[in-house]
Design brief:
four-stranded antiparallel beta sheet; alpha/beta; eight-stranded mixed beta sheet; binds adenosine-5'-diphosphate; about 350 residues; binds magnesium ion; Oligopep_ABC_C
């Protein structure tokens, strides 16, 4: 989707997004702290693209996706979808924006009401947001069932009568009912049998092409994201570690965390696979209620430097479209000069060049 100047349009713009969950304790249920599930995250998604969002379980991917769609009251930050601010929009404004943005959930079993028929599940958003007649509504429901490859004859059946893959198709049809532009797919295939995962991914890709959809595709499966995403964002402990076009990220990861994550993914090329060296990170992921000072990855980073324990790196564009939050790449001379990071950085870059 290009505009007149041939630059893709940003459909989703996220800036300084924070989503903290309060922690209460004691008999008085006093607030004693926050789980910083998403902590100062900024990125954008171009119209018509798929941005993959990866990272270990608990790093804040789902919270990020939900916060963007305002399924939570966000702690701070700006989210614009199609030019409209949503993070702080009032109820009525939000209601008007709802059709533009939808979500496909991980577990179709849990997200579909077991007491509703397929037709009523898919038709529910139409009841809430349109004034279609009964007949028009049924036509639209059939059309949606066709689009996702569900047999119209099953419109009056209940979710439990379907397989996992078919249930996910019901969830997708429902998400499409109001002609959204942007869909957050939160691990949409993680709960499905491997044999049907590809079918659902293919369906999502087909629909994207046909309907010009924009996806935030959340997954912990880096091989799957490599297949489906145009650009990939890597999250660690509530923050963005790296974001880059897919090829650059998989071929030349910059952040030590991304390097470690990718080192665990088997390479389809047998020669490369035989050379693959697994980077095992030491220690556990710290608690998002009490993240480390400085860089949040400093407690586990194989390339940690002194500065990393005290100064938080900024999320910077270090090559065209390639963003990384790491002191090895920071342009800020004040940071780099402070504790000899620039020396370490030179060394690292030289090593990189020799390799
Ligand atoms: N509603 C909630 N209340 C309190 N903490 C939450 C809530 N939802 C998620 N969290 C916490 O926020 C962090 C990020 O969770 P989540 O976004 O689900 O991660 P992911 O999707 O990457 O596995 C975790 O530590 C999780 O326990
Ligand atoms: Mg999740």
């Amino acid at each position: 989707m290009l505009d007149a100047s041939n630059t893709p349009r940003k459909l989703v713009e996220v800036s300084g997004l924070k989503m903290y969950f309060p922690i209460h304790a004691g008999v008085l249920r006093r607030k004693v702290g926050d789980v910083k599930a998403v902590d100062n995250v900024s990125f954008h998604i171009f119209e018509g693209e798929t941005l993959g969002l990866v990272g270990e379980s608990g790093c804040g991917k789902s919270t990020c996706g939900r916060a963007i769609l305002r399924l939570y009251e966000v702690t701070d930050g700006i989210v614009k979808i199609d030019g409209k601010e949503i993070a702080k929009a009032d109820r009525e404004a939000l209601r008007k924006m709802r059709p533009t943005m939808q979500m496909v959930f991980q577990d179709p079993q849990a997200s579909l009401n077991p007491r509703m028929t397929v037709a009523s599940i898919i038709g529910e958003p139409l009841d809430e947001h349109t004034k279609l007649s009964k007949k028009e509504k049924l036509e639209r429901i059939y059309e949606l069932m066709d689009q996702v490859g569900l047999n119209r004859a099953f419109a009056n059946r209940y979710p439990h009568e379907f397989s996992g893959g078919q249930r996910q198709r019901i969830g997708i049809a429902r998400a499409l009912a109001l002609n959204p532009k942007f869909i957050v797919c939160d691990e949409p295939i993680a709960a499905l049998d491997v044999s049907i995962q590809a079918q659902v991914v293919n369906l999502l890709e087909e629909l994207q092409e046909r309907l010009g959809l924009t996806y935030l595709f959340i997954s912990h499966d880096l091989s799957m994201v490599r297949h489906i995403a145009d650009r990939v964002a890597v999250m660690y402990l509530g923050q963005m570690a790296e974001l880059a076009p897919r090829e650059a990220l998989y071929a030349r990861p910059k952040h030590p965390y991304t390097e470690a994550l990718l080192s665990a993914v088997p390479d389809p090329d047998p020669t490369l696979e035989s050379e693959r060296e697994r980077i095992i990170l030491k220690g556990d992921v710290p608690s998002p209620a009490n993240p480390p000072k400085g860089c949040n990855f400093c407690t586990r980073c194989p390339k940690v430097m002194e500065i990393c324990h005290s100064v938080e790196p900024t999320f910077e564009e270090v090559a065209p479209g390639h963003y990384v939050a790491c002191h090895l790449y920071q342009s800020n001379s004040q940071n780099a000069g402070a504790t000899g990071a620039s020396e370490a950085r030179k060394e690292h870059i030289q090593q990189g060049e020799e390799a």
